[in-house]
Amino acid sequence: MKTPADGKDPAITATEKAIEILDRLISFDTTSRNSNLDMIDFVAAYLDGLEIESRFVKSPDGKKANIFASLGPGAQEGGSIALSGHTDVVPVDGQDWDTDPFVMTRRDGRLYGRGTADMKGFIACALAAIPGFKERNLHTPISLIFSYDEEVGCLGIRPLIKQFESSLPKPKMVIVGEPTSMTVVDAHKGASRFETIVTGLEAHSSLTHLGVNAIDVAARLIRELRDIEEEFAERHSSHRFTPPFSTINIGIIEGGTALNIVPKTCRFLWEVRPVPGLDASEVLARLKDFAETRCLPSMRAVSEDCDIRITEQNTIPSFQASATEAVSLAMNLAGQNSTSAVAFGTEAGLFEQSGTPTVICGPGDIAQAHKPNEFIGVSDLEDCMKFMSRLAERACA
Predict the structure, then answer these.
(1) What values do phi and psi take at 163, rounded to 5?
(2) Cα distance between residue 57 and residue 145, in whole Å
(3) What CATH number has the domain spanning 191-316?
(4) For 47-80, b where at least 16 C-beta lie within 10 A, e where not — what string?
(5) Conformation bin of residue 42: beta by default, left when phi > 0, alpha when psi is -120 to 50
(6) Distance between CA 171 and CA 355 in Å, rounded?
(7) Distance (Å, rounded) from C-alpha 155 to C-alpha 161?
(8) Which end of the chain is least crowded, N or C, by CB within 10 Å?
(9) Domain ranges of the chain
(10) What's the pLDDT tens digit per position in 287-330?
């Protein structure tokens, strides 16, 4: 990128543009329960002003949308380097913010607001980089992919990925800009969520032998999950993660109606966060087998109506970069000689499953995400804009 006539550092100049865009993006309350269409319309209008056509992939109810756009030679034939981010943010309900979370506040080198780090900061940088991309004689096209409903299970990106090679050109690689402090990440754990509903038989609490205590059965199932986790800690460990093993968490449990009634129902929600190489379906199969062989026979000896229902609600696949090209490019652009792994989930695993080499690298610190007074440093955006500038150079080679 050429130095402007005013002598300003082009990365700083581009950073100020990114901050200006981020200010607008933060003003849209795109909490996952809300529509993101106002923000998507803003992005589309911005791209239209730069003569870049964008395409929407809407949710079934039409209240949300992904946006896809490309520029450069052969952009509609595929083979682009895609910059991917999610537009939705987590709720601010019950959080103690010092400022309005949907009004970006600049103070002491930081930019405060919901989504500054996770991950509208990256989206702002990608948009701010577009004029610089357009000035170049690109040999490799650049794409933008901004999704909805990432925070509630990476739901929105799935229908867009399904359109690769049919109505949308498939990228040759994807850079997911989750907040990694511009560290290159090539692996993360998955996240699979399950619901278990135990149906027992009510009875008076003085006659427990006439009933089937659903909470007791649920406790047995939860104990089995703990045993499975301990076993996996020995069989499926990886020093790259903290903690270095697959985890199982019981997040919600509810059941019973009164202390003097043997509870008929108990429901609990649980998740598995597997390291790459472990399929969470193995945990599901193990628990179902335990329910069928160790719990249900004694339950149904009391009442045939007793039941245990275990269902998968959603799965975010673990991520392990399968090709070196995307990882090598990101390391070169970020000026790094090594990669990292993270415990949180992203859309990267879904891109990888589609056969698209993927890597994760973006501005901001995940430790600031989802918290009150979320912020991103201006210096983080500067580093990201330098990354974008190097990407423009690389796309010209």
Answers:
(1) -90, 0
(2) 10
(3) 3.30.70.360
(4) beeeebebeebebeeeebbbbbbbbbeebeebbb
(5) alpha
(6) 10
(7) 11
(8) C
(9) 10-188+317-396, 191-316
(10) 999 999 999 999 999 999 999 999 999 999 999 998 789 999 99
For the segment 199-247, what is each residue's pLDDT rounded down to a tens digit?
A: 999 999 999 999 999 999 999 999 999 999 999 888 878 899 989 999 9
- The overall longest dimension of the chain from CA atoms, in Å, is 88
* C-alpha radius of gyration, the chain, whole number: 24
The residues annotated as belonging to the active site are: 88, 150
Architecture of domain 10-188+317-396: 3-Layer(aba) Sandwich (3.40)
Please state, in angstroms and as integers, the Cα–Cα distance from residue 173 to each residue in 23, 307, 339, following that order: 29, 46, 17
The pTM assigned to this predicted structure is 0.90
Query: Whole-angstrom Cα distance, residue 134 to residue 136?
Result: 5
Cα angle: 274, vertex 276, 278; to 5 degrees: 55
- CA distances for 352 relative to 53, 170, 176, 255, angstroms: 26, 12, 11, 40
CA distance linking residue 62 with residue 66, whole number of Å: 11
Inter-residue contact 172 to 164 (CB < 8 Å): no
Torsion of CA 360, 363, 368, 373, to 10 degrees: -140
What DSSP string runs through 254-285?
Answer: EE-S-TTB--SEEEEEEEEEPPTT--THHHHH
